[in-house]
């Protein structure tokens, strides 16, 4: 073999090794990028920054306390039947936002059903990734939520909010890499784009995220993150306590109903920004399924998320007891 052939072979070998290293680095970079998108850290920014549109709410009608009895000063909401629409129950203290404007043939997007695990009637929130959208206003996302809508479920500055409810994600639930919220604390006016707090299930983790809005320097971002798997296919009781203040407080505990095991907890007694500027401002809770249609990297699907036993108090945890 002559020197020219040897030299040529060396160049080919060197080129092959360089190409292999380049491909390996590119693959590793892509995997890291996907991982970061899947478990985003930081304040809530981007496509889920939307203000509530009162014109898109289903307003309270009829008896202001229909479906929302007041027990010991707290407002409660529970399913009353084993089938049929739940919309008639969302009156008085709660309003609802639905995708019926675009997907009316399906019927009501919150129904009632008997649940054998809880041995009671519960709410079923239906979310269709293709057929639904966000109230015929935003078309890159889907929304089916209920939210506080009167003085007992909306909180002024320096007022306390005590919430308790139950939820159950499907065993095969798929979270979005962009945003997917099953609970929000949201300002009603003014600086009301991003929610103050969300419970956000992603592909492999469940996060609790804080956003201070225009005062972005005060945003805590992801305050806690735990594996999503323990939340799938089982009932979870949620407890939230917060003070609506620039120097506010926030506490959350998520407990598995079947055995009482705490799956997530976080408590900040002061120094968390839980108030936004705005005319006649209030904070209120929102429950349901609000999610992006996706970024093309995760195959999202239709979901049915169950909820039960909502309770809202402005006085004490004792008015919304667990169990």
Note down, in words, how this protein is organized.
A hairpin with a 3-residue loop joins strand 10 (197-201) and strand 11. The protein contains 2 helices and 17 strands. It is globular and about 45 Å long. Strands 1, 2, 4, 5, 8, 13, 14, 15 and 17 form a 9-stranded antiparallel beta sheet that branches. Strands 3, 6, 7, 9, 10, 11, 12 and 16 form an 8-stranded antiparallel beta sheet that branches. It has helices at 3-38, 100-103, and strands at residues 70-71, 74-77, 94-97, 110-115, 120-127, 141-148, 154-155, 160-168, 180-187, 197-201, 205-210, 221-227, 235-243, 248-256, 262-272, 283-292, 303-313. Helix content is 12%, strand content 37%.
């Amino acid at each position: 073999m002559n020197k020219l052939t040897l030299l040529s072979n060396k160049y080919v070998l060197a080129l092959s090794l360089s190409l292999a290293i380049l491909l390996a680095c590119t693959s590793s970079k892509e995997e890291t990028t996907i991982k970061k998108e899947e478990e985003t850290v930081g304040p809530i920014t981007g496509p889920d920054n939307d203000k509530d549109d009162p014109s898109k709410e289903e307003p309270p009608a009829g008896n202001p306390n229909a479906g929302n009895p007041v027990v010991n000063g707290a407002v409660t909401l529970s399913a009353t039947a084993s089938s049929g629409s739940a919309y008639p129950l969302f009156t008085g203290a709660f309003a609802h936002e639905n995708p019926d404007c675009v997907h009316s043939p399906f019927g009501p997007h919150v129904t009632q059903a008997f649940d054998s695990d809880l041995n009671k009637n519960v709410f079923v929130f239906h979310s269709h990734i293709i057929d639904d959208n966000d109230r015929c206003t935003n078309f890159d996302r889907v929304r089916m939520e209920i939210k506080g809508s009167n003085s007992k479920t909306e909180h002024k500055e320096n007022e306390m909010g005590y919430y308790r409810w139950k939820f159950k994600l499907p065993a095969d639930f798929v979270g979005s890499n962009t945003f997917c919220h099953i609970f929000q604390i949201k300002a009603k006016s003014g600086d009301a784009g991003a929610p103050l707090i969300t419970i956000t299930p992603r592909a492999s983790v469940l996060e609790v995220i804080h956003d201070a809005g225009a005062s972005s320097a005060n945003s805590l971002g992801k305050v806690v993150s735990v594996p999503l798997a323990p939340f799938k296919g089982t009932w979870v009781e949620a407890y939230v306590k917060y003070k609506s203040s620039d120097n506010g407080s926030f506490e959350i505990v998520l407990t598995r109903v079947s055995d009482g095991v705490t799956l997530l907890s976080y408590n900040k007694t002061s120094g968390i920004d839980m108030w936004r500027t705005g005319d006649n401002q209030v904070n209120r809770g929102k429950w349901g399924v609000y999610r992006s249609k996706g970024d093309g990297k995760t195959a999202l699907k239709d979901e049915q998320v169950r909820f039960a036993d909502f309770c809202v108090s402005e006085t004490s945890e004792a008015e919304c007891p667990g169990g």
